[in-house]
Amino acid sequence: EVDDAEWERVLGVNASGTFYCMRAVLPAMIERGYGRIVNLASVAGKEGNPMAAAYSAAKAAVIGMTKALGKDLVGTGVLVNCIAPAVIQTPILDQLSQEHVDYMLARIPLGRLGEVDEVARLVCFLASEDMTFSTGATLQPSLLGVGFIVRFAHYVGHLRACRALVFRLVQRFDCVLKLCGGKSALFRSKS
Known about the structure:
Layout: H1 4-32, E1 35-40, H2 43-47, H3 53-72, E2 78-83, H4 98-105, H5 116-127, E3 138-139, H6 141-144, H7 146-151, H8 159-179
Parallel strand pairs: 1-2, 2-3
Helix pairs in contact: 1-3, 5-8
């Protein structure tokens, strides 16, 4: 069961938060003629997870916004892409039942949880100047495989700096979530 307050909170943090962040940064990016936005959704937004209707709906909204803005911004120099990872080894898993985690894990082709560093590498590539041909795309690391993500590490230089950036984004997001009274680390960032 999801009450109205929880529904509004989950959509507010994930869907509205993504919208407001993009709206805040886009004018400067368009004016410069260059920008990269990387939204983090979830495979739940593509597939829908049981017992997670609000989360699935919110992440589907992030994917939809990414696709729409990717098309709207063609020719501006601003690229908007999205990552929809499967289950990543983060503290949110402590809040889920083992049954729920097992359900999600059973649907991952590699049969294991993803690591934050694997997603960080893909975020860094999508946010880099090397990303020049993709906009409005949603990449799903669990289907791409670890090898695909690792190949992009050479594009972004030092992985340590990239990892530090992702962790700073997570920390900022956790602060926003606390302000919203949330308990879950419903991960979403922009770059």
